[in-house]
Amino acid sequence: MSKLLLVDDEPAFLRLAAAWLEKQGHSVETAADGARAREAFLRERPDLVLLDLVMPPERTPEAGLARIPDFAAVPVVVLTAHADHDLALRAVAAGAWDFLAKPVEPDLLRFVVELALLKRGLEQEVASLRAAQPTEDGIFGSSPVILRLKEMIRRIAPADLPVMVLGPSGTGKELVAHALHAASPRRSGPFVAVHCGAIPAELLESELFGHLKDSFTGAHQDRQGLVAAAHGGTLFPDEVGEMPPSMQVKLLRFLQEDTYSPVGGRQPLTADVRVVSATHRDIEAMAVEGSFREDFYYRLKGLILRSPPLAERREDIAPLAARFLADAAKRRRLHLTAEALAWLAEQDWPGNVRELKAVVTSAAALAEGSVLTLADLAFARSGDPATLPQAAPATLAETVADLERRLIITALAATGNNHSAAACRLGLSRVGLLKMMTRLGLR
Ligand SMILES: Nc1ncnc2c1ncn2[C@@H]1O[C@H](COP(=O)(O)OP(=O)(O)OP(=O)(O)O)[C@@H](O)[C@H]1O
């Protein structure tokens, strides 16, 4: 159902036109002057505005024309007096999509509205396809914080200085490091990531610097380390805050002198490497309190880039979700419902983009038709097999229970897990809802 905003100062016309459009299956808001129209536009977010150009308080066509840009986010159809063909053309020049002469012919009204809504639908589809296109650096999003980050990447990539990427887990720090590499003069060299937290401390040195044959039990032959592998390119020590102090000293020496020694070797080796590190920890505080070497911190940090949490860029959630859905759906055409999109945009996402990606990807795998609903997402996020939709429930009782579960999860998700509000939405008492949840295995 589309939502229309009808703006006219003639009460009889408002009433009749609204009734006719509602009969066509639209929901219609009305406003009798420019100020109220603007309020209704911001509050209701209609898909289309039908706008009389001559209205109080000014009652001049010029004032009407000046109002058109206020509604330009959606198609505007202007209503003009029959003789005012010239005004209608000026309205189109000012950004209106079409015009209708009064008295309005009902079938023509229906036709023009349908065409304008079709245009609106196509525009929305183009916008979501465009948002889902890959960007060169693989970093999606067009929120101000992400645009600033991309601009910083562009500016500091060419400088051969160390960079430290800070930000919570799952915000795309590795993507940022990779984008820095890809935009730097080292782009044709290797990009080598080392996950410092995942490698046992005693292995990290040989992992980074390599070792000579027989330098320790099991070292059957010489082995090159990741520093040598990154020669001519970028080394990315991720979770550098987890690096043991003994390794910090050794990597500091490498940063200062470009030389290092493999485990069991005396001869210093050199490598030409740019170091881009990352951590989700407050590493500056760690350096101040002494749990991370201060000299190493200052050497390592060079320039700092911050990768913002998803909660600070909610406008990126929809394009990211569309992107992940397109990736997950492969050749299938899968769409998110408006309700599902709104739910995604409201969540807190403590695991940031990684969590969003995981939820959308698993929901896409679970979805059966061509539509991804809020219930599919809620199931994917709860990760509880008991709440999984059954592919083909065998009995009526199971089908009903399945539907009840979906509705309850949807209501809980929409109310931020508030039992009373969810019960109210479902027309149940709070106790009734809790009993039902117990019966359905939801608590
Ligand atoms: N802006 C983005 N556009 C597209 N994908 C993104 C974006 N940010 C993160 N991702 C995806 O989210 C996942 C997590 O990203 P990444 O590993 O870079 O995060 P991280 O901050 O390095 O996490 P951690 O601190 O846990 O290592 C990856 O699959 C990555 O592709």
What does this protein look like?
It is a single chain. It contains 19 helices and 14 strands. The chain is α/β, with parallel strands linked by helices. The chain has three domains: 3-131, Rossmann fold; 144-308, Rossmann fold (3-Layer(aba) Sandwich), CATH 3.40.50; 312-439, Helicase, Ruva Protein, domain 3 (Orthogonal Bundle). The model is unreliable at 388-393 (pLDDT under 50). The chain binds adenosine-5'-triphosphate. Adenosine-5'-triphosphate (ATP) binds next to helix 7 and helix 15. The modification 4-aspartylphosphate is found at residue 52. Residues 3-117 form the Response regulatory domain. GO terms for molecular function: ATP binding; sequence-specific DNA binding.
The distinct ligands, each listed once, are: adenosine-5'-triphosphate
Percentage of residues in helical conformation: 40-55%
Domain count: 3
Structural class: alpha/beta
Residue runs with pLDDT of under 50 for 5 or more positions: 388-393
Task: Please specify the SSE layout and strand pairing.
Elements: E1 3-7, H1 11-23, E2 27-31, H2 34-44, E3 48-52, H3 61-67, E4 76-81, H4 85-93, E5 98-102, H5 106-131, H6 144-156, E6 163-166, H7 173-182, E7 191-195, H8 201-209, H9 226-229, E8 234-238, H10 245-257, E9 259-260, E10 269-270, E11 274-279, H11 283-289, H12 294-301, E12 303-306, H13 317-329, E13 335-336, H14 338-346, H15 352-366, E14 371-372, H16 374-382, H17 396-414, H18 419-426, H19 430-439
Parallel strand pairs: 1-2, 1-3, 3-4, 4-5, 6-11, 6-12, 7-8, 8-11, 13-14
Antiparallel strand pairs: 9-10
